[in-house]
Amino acid sequence: MRVRFLTLITAIVAATYLGSGAAQAQSFYAGKTLRIIVGLSPGGGFDTYARTIGRHLGKHIPGNPTVIVDNMPGAGSIIMTNHMYKVAKPDGLTMGHFNGALILGQVLGQAGIEFDARKFEYVGAAVSESVVCSLSKASGVTSIDQWKAAKTPVKMGGVAPGATPDNSARILHAALGLPVQVVSGYKGTSRIRLAVESGELAGACWSWQSMRVTWRKAIDSGDVKPIVQIVPKPFPDISKVPLAIDLATTEEAKQLIRYGVQNASAYARPFILPPGTPMDRVAVLRTAFQATLKDPDFLAEAKKARLIIDPVTGEEMEKIVADVFTMSPALQAKLKEALYTK
Amino acid sequence: MPIAEIAGAFASGFSDVFAPNTLGLMLVGIALGFAVGILPGLGGPTTLALMLPFIFTMQPVEAFAFLLGMAAVTATTGDITSILFGVPGEPTTASTIVDGHPMAKKGEAGRALGAALASSLVGAIFGAFALALAIPIVRPLVLTFGSPELFMLAVLGMTFVASLSGENLLKGLIAGGIGLLFATVGLDPMTATQRYTFDQLFLWDGIGLVPITIGFFAIPEIIDLAVQRSAIARASVEKLGGVMQGVKDTFRHFWLVVRCSALGAYVGIIPGMGGGVSQWLAYAHAVQSSPRQERFGKGAVEGVLGPGAANNSTLGGNLIPTIAFGVPGGVMTAILLGAFTIQGLVPGPSMLTPESQGGHLSLTFSFVWMIVISNLVTVAVCFVFLRQLAKVTMIRGSLLIPPILLLIYVGAFAEKNAFPDLLLVLLFGVLGWLMEKFHWPRPPLILGVVLGPLAENRLFLATDNYGLAWLGRPGVLILIALTLAGAFYPMLKRAMQRRENRSAGSQRAATKIKRPAFDRGMLFTLAIVVVVGAALWQSRNFGFRPGLFPWAVGIPLFVLAVAQLFVEVTRGVERPPKSPAEHGEEIPDSIVARRTAVMFGWIFGYLVAIWLLGFTIGGVLCTFLSLKVGSREPWPISLALTAAMGAFVYGVFELALHVPFPPGALFDWVGLTPS
Known about the structure:
The complex is a heterodimer. Chain A is α/β, with parallel strands linked by helices.
């Protein structure tokens, strides 16, 4: 007992000494409250990730601040992201979690966006969102060749213009010439699943990380089959399913697939800080964020909740986001036409 | 699946609930749900979401006992606030106000509460067993509902406007149309085109049901309370002990309660329709099936029984598609779906497979028992305190108004943490007050708001998927027949009643007063015509798809509104006679006008103070001022009540729930915001 106590004392003293470099940030976060604001409703996917991370983040930040998670839902997280840009104080105590699809939206001139995604400080992401398109056996399309040969447009479920299922299906049409009719307006992928099972839709595209969990039974039984994956490297569990990028024949088609779907996967679910947050605090939070994603307690909870953890660092994210803004005007115009024109 | 195995799972589901830990957590959940239900604005869904992180360390049965215990009782205790204060405790209990609150005013609060609780219990048990019975047949039950059928169900729901219109069908249709038009505010569901958003981002997702129902029902009640300067109960309160009578009412109208429970459960099964819809359909059904419809809106007990049962049975119905497909039926089950994932459970066939084959059937059946037991506990607890609760209606209004007003604003904010929602409360408060004053039925408007988005969304999905061929689907044909029957039956009945009345020689009580020049009611009708006209004018640029629904609603609405104006100008304004029992002593018009203006001043003042000084400081300051200066309450009472409210708002919302109240704008301007 005494030995353990001594060890503890030594550890604390040592930690204090070694940590003196980060002393400033440590004294800053001690006794403070870090607030994570989620731009979407409580109970959804974004919220679940943020709340699970929020439970463990505090212990990895020197000074162990209290971490609380709030929601500021509205306009597909535009309200919260605008708030982060214009109102939130850049003091390292407010972190935002929003739908990264808005970054592409900014480049393509989506209405309502009042932020510049290049100015945010990126903390990182817990998961990337890699898209796979699956169709029901009942639709009669069980391979990419059958899809190409389909006489009538294949009905694919959509949520709203700019959402992953819509963008992915539209890009397949624009880049690969697949016959596609996007039926948009379903309230979330769960409603789309139901419509596919009842025969109303042929299929839909969204992140494989979520699809393979929520649609497990139908995929295992063969009632629903992955037909094409819009990712740079195939998923090991469906390695035989063709990649969209390999089916593209022109450079323009490849670019549409890259910028329209593939690259967006890395910045799909970002955690950000307001522009102008002091760099030492950004660094502390980036380190703590990645440490949280490796924390065994956190991973156990994530596993239980079937949250897939596939970390993206803040530095990587910054690069990919900057890259979105380098698109040529011609490609931007093409992408806009593919994603938003009827 | 052998019957014995199902029965075994059903029984073990029951015994699982009684494990000490599970039962303990369920009681904690019930206590939370109890409080949340009573507090206006702070709704079940938000609280469920806030509690989700706590279930990581629990076993599945414990987690669901905790969450379902909470979810199951909010609709029950929400009824209490609706009846006593005329403020919806939950968005799903707004319809209980329409007849429940007039009962409280008549001194029958005890009876209304007894009826609400007893019918809630019946509804909850019905819904729970509907869940149990539906489990074997759930897949075909849900999969037969494609988009076309869902659209037709929304249309069928809209025919209930006729029953909700009271004396004046034309006004009811216009109110319903206005509700449908309000439902188009925001991004349209197909092309994300902005409609009536006035460049305000907070309107992109449409107008939330919480600010609408709170403003629409609570603000007029508060003004009425201020004008009358009395307690909520205007009549003698000897009938306080009427609790048992309310219970007896439940059994006297048992078939109504059962039918409304069935309606609630059925509506719950349909994804996208929840308690927000089912309560109004149940209320309309209660009106429709009553031989004496003129009593409704003035304190008819059937108007409490119907929604009381339906909003409780909806949860059981909602759980059916959630468990079987992972498709949540309502907002609350959408968050419960999060609990499934946290617990590592995948909704779908495995939830319906016995444990011996690796499924979770006993867990699913334990949900049934959780709903039943948590409602039994709640209703039992309520009955113990019911007399005390009903006595609230005897407290003088001047003591109730300041805290209620603060709660209304806090509740409206806390749903989405959005300040602009407070403005919506004010806007809908004024609208609700005007509609009440000029005898426009309010329920059809709410029905339009809740059914509009579903109708538009599913109409486009049906047409995009099937062209016009969807009109020929058998389910659609059946629903069209039902809709026609639903639309014409009340009219037929009304015509027959009128003939009977005429033959009996008794004229309708309503008297028509010929006004020589004009009436202020006409001004309101004129305002409706102008606003609808302006909305149509704005919609000219929407484009075909986003514009179709606003046009389809707006054009007939405009015609109806003009017709109403024409009727009023040429034939005078129809006025139901004032019932002296409800309004107590007649108060001169000039005093009514002055008191109303003063109350509006306070309502507006609260908003400004909260905006400038923040919720804690501004809200507390207003509470104190309106108690001390406004109502001239003695110092000790003013100070004590203010302190209690301040501690409550700060403790519950700021400390416990971490609601991110914005600091006052004033502090922002002078740069004093605390870091």
